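Question (not urgent): is this output format expected?
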Amino acid sequence: MSPEESVAFAHHFRLSWLELRDVPGLPGEQKPYFFLPEAELRWHAKLFHDGGLKISFINTNLLKKGLPGTVLLSKKPPTPEASQEEYDQRFANLAKCIQSAHAFECPYLRVFSFLRAEHPEALYDRIANIIGEMAHKAQAEGVMLLIENEPACNIGNSAELAAFLPKVPEKLLGFNWDAANALHTHETPFPDGYRLLPRNRMRNAQIKGHDILDPDQRVDWVPIFAAMDEDGFAGQIGLETHYFDGTKLERSHLAMDKIVKLADANARGHASAAS
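Got this back:
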């Protein structure tokens, strides 16, 4: 899906917001929006602005390498040198991501919690100090970092978000909730995981295409939408299609069509309950 097709997609479904990750291209040629040079940022920002669209969330890959000095669980972890280089460049990379947030007038940047190590909970204080320092710099630039639960990382599910987030001030750090990601840690996303979340700090949520389209539907979003409404969730919910078999565009249309219908049905249900 090209940037122009993204605009057309949003118009087709009457969307006002988009999330950003990579500029579409051939395999191996995609460029992350969050590291684009300033001139390219301006071009893409103008395209979305002229299309009447706002950018709600930029899916950066910040802190998705190993934390130096830790033993990783992955069978194919990055080399210690690669992890150290990424760590040493964290503030320079953050600055580039903040530049992209400014270009797109986007309030939120995604951040991870380093690749999963043995005994992740023992690292929470250290990770909180690192993310807290980065979050201070982002806040000074008018941007908030949102940590995502990612099973390949040290914070992988709702329970781990709930344990970690109190270590960083609420004004500095929110979170992006990916319900399907929690499945990989054997957590039931709803209602079990959802009930553990510090929901006042949720600024964004993501739905996997598999949740909506697969016959065995791994995550049922109908009760989640209802719970979010009841809790007063005021953020955005994005589609992360995550199909890599050449059907991404087709499945994006199918998934978004179902999401819109579910959201409309939920809204009608609340209207009926209130009348």
